[in-house]
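name: query_chain
kind: protein
chains: 1
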Amino acid sequence: MQPSKVTDLLFQQLNFRGERQKVISSNIANIDTPGYKTKELKFEDHMDKLGSSLALKKTHPSHMSIVDSTPKGSMSTYEVKGLEEQNDGNNVNLDTQMSEMSKNSIMFQALQNSIKKDSTWFKSIIDASSKN
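structure:
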């Protein structure tokens, strides 16, 4: 049993952040590989679609209607176009990749904290209902 629909989205985003960390690490590892092109992971479109499926319970006739469509998609890796290349054809920028890694790490930690908080709320609701 999951605490809420939000928890599923948080776990999907957490998985994305883990996969993105691998892609960024691969970019950094290949910084001296001739002809290597910077890779990126695409997932935001999928999350934008899922965001519309987060519906609240309708408890009053004037509340917005419930949307229950959950499109499923997947992550995909692509080469980033338009980056400045070095003489050997490599276009990995270490500063950019380190910055992206830091942002990704912060998002990963925030998602972990959100999952913990969501689970805590779920547990407190169960505890409160068992006392009645």
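note: The chain has three helices and two strands.
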